[in-house]
Write a structure and sequence with these properties.
2 copies of one chain form a homodimer. Chain A is of the alpha/beta class. Chain A has 13 helices and 12 strands. The first copy, chain A, folds into 3 domains: 45 residues, lambda repressor-like DNA-binding domains (434 Repressor (Amino-terminal Domain)), CATH 1.10.260; 132 residues, Response regulator (Rossmann fold, 3-Layer(aba) Sandwich); 141 residues, Response regulator (Rossmann fold). In chain A, helix 1 packs across helix 3 and helix 8 runs parallel beside helix 9. Chain A starts with 5 loop residues before the first helix and ends in an 8-residue tail after the last strand. Chain A binds a DNA duplex through helix 2 and helix 4.
DNA sequence: CTGGGTTGGTGTAACGATGCACTGACTCTA
DNA sequence: TAGAGTCAGTGCATCGTTACACCAACCCAG
């Protein structure tokens, strides 16, 4: 390897290592221009790059942040991870990516490992109602940002949450279907009890009630506990749901709100299995507006999350809290989702 | 933070730090059982975890490996990244994930950074014909594994390549369409000159010629250099291609081989824009067999890559070369792709 | 009962960067 | 010109772990 160290630079520039270190750490006001130039030249000539391990050992923290998503195999999380990387790069930070598969134990292990690895902060994409599984790490000083999970009453005070307003999202989706004349609207999700699932469901109920309909009359499909599907298999949830809701003799809906686009696409696939036509026979709306929503046949109506903006916010909080202007901790940012109407929803 | 160090453990176990270190590094044969147990107990009681930065500073390398993909926003790469993580975890390794967006300069910067970060090895998903942009790092000792890019004549000797046989893949896809009776078969890809694009195209030509047809008579769409699309926008390439190939007066094909599934799905979308029906009016086949291929309407015929197996192989080479039995470097592994027939391809 | 070998450890100097406390040389001001 | 103050830069201990070189105690053959 023959690493170039700060000592080599110091020797080449005829100064002490301390001075080079001062230069590297933006304390160059404390030296004359000529010295600064000598150091700059030496660094360039030798191709010096600071050793991160040494820096981290000294400083305690590294220039890396952690990102824990359910699974990058799911296009929504893949797209989000990409946005996070872009934002982190702008702040001079690397991203360590982990897939939790929504397993609380894996979430905990990853968060612990990342913390021990000396990351600056962690964006945790979880939907667990409680954060107690990572509570001890937060107590030790970890900057945790939750994404896709609004703040909950029992959260540790320092946690920042970035999320869309899922309640509003649920309402937007449902209202759209109501406006198209649907009155039998199903709600389809996986079996995992998640914060945002609850909120979207509540929004769905609110919209129905506002229209004078009772949620109790609606078919709600929430998978079975026996078979837990991960995010990659979200589509399978939707497909199964379609088969169930439209089996013979069932009280079939004319429209469906799916918990996310993958589930929605799976539901569409399920409808097709049964010879039903999406949009014509049954309207389907999803969440997230993944890239495939627009590609699908028919293109899928969806509730869009502004992931680029959310990623920027989340990264800023994770690596440098307070950079957003306000530096009170424990903030919960709820962004407004946006309805994107395509052809999978049509008037009844 | 109040870190527990190896010194604390040593004190608690009434041994020297060296002995604890020996224990931690599997040199426990050199100590009596009672000592071993005291150390084990002390570690457990204090909740000691070794400091990675210090270890890395001492040893030079860390327990992390790098993965550079074009973009996790593309479902194929997302799925692959997930498989890599699973495989790495089994080997006790973390994964540092980067998106190159197929930009050679970003590839180089990431590889350099990862190397300086002390990763054990890197899986680089590139399709550039030459590896000279990262050649200097390889010379310094980096273990590089390329994925989705078979070995090229000028590659440094130590590089290992894991890939499917794209030539065979191109043949399989094309033969399938020929068997269905198609004789006007287009080839659609982006404009990026890549190794596997060439190989797939060659396979396509080979299959046509074997059937007595001339590739010169076929419409080949390779985007325009003016607009370079990344992997996320692969779908846009396909959509544009459909619009072009089926514009009025064009010599339209009855079947299409697309360079990958995202492009294929985009192509399907383009056909739909034009009022054409996938499978019925035009048969479409893609590559990769991403999860959405099966979900699409109609389900997409595709050439599957065994990504799970490939990920395992690649990780093994990156973190512990020679673990696969053979320890000669510079190997090129070509796996056989598999045709998955669905409804997007039908007889003419 | 000496001398060589084995067993079960320990002391210590790194790895590379950092930042506090310090100094020597100047420059003012009174 | 003494004394204080600034400027530009340096020395050194430190972060936690590792591995080499070393050592003390014991055993046994000759």
């Amino acid at each position: 390897m023959a690493r170039v160290t700060i000592q080599d630079v110091a020797r080449a520039a005829e100064v002490s290592p301390s001075t080079v270190s001062n230069f590297l750490n933006n304390r160059s006001e404390r030296m004359v221009a000529a010295t600064r130039e000598r150091i700059e030249r030496a660094i360039a000539e030798l191709g010096y790059r600071p050793n991160r391990a040494a820096r981290q050992l000294r400083n305690g923290r590294s220039q890396t942040m952690g990102l824990v998503v359910p699974s990058v195999g799911n296009p929504f999380w893949g797209a989000f991870a990409r946005e996070v990387e872009v934002a982190a790069l702008e702040m001079g930070c690397n991203v360590l990516l982990c897939n939790s598969e929504r397993d609380p134990d894996r979430e905990r292990r990853y968060v612990e490992e990342l913390w021990e690895d000396g990351v600056r902060g962690i964006i945790l994409c979880t939907s667990l109602p409680s954060l107690e599984h990572v509570g001890h790490v937060i107590k030790e000083g970890l900057r945790l940002v939750t994404f896709d999970r609004p703040a909950q009453p029992n959260d540790p005070a320092s946690v920042v949450s970035i999320s869309i307003d899922n309640n509003v999202g649920g309402q937007i989706a449902t209202s759209h279907l109501l406006e198209l004349g649907h009155t039998k609207i199903a709600f389809v999700s996986g079996s995992i009890r998640s914060v945002n699932r609850s909120a979207r469901y509540r929004g769905y109920c609110d919209a129905l009630e506002a229209a004078g309909l009772s949620p109790d009359d609606m078919p709600v499909w929430a998978g079975t506990d026996a078979t837990r599907f991960g995010d990659v298999e979200a589509a399978q949830v939707g497909r199964n749901a379609a088969h169930e809701l439209f089996r013979e003799g069932a009280d079939a809906p004319t429209a469906v709100v799916a918990i996310n686009d993958m589930t929605a696409l799976g539901f569409c696939r399920g409808l097709r299995d049964l010879g039903l036509e999406v949009g014509v026979d049954v309207s389907v709306i999803g969440f997230d507006d993944i890239i495939l929503a627009d590609l699908y046949d028919p293109p899928l109506t969806s509730v869009r999350q502004p992931i680029s903006q959310m990623a920027k916010l989340a990264v800023a909080e994770a690596v440098d809290p307070g950079a957003n202007g306000s530096n009170e901790p424990g903030r919960s940012v709820l962004l407004r989702p946006e309805l994107v109407v395509r052809e999978s929803t049509q008037s009844k």
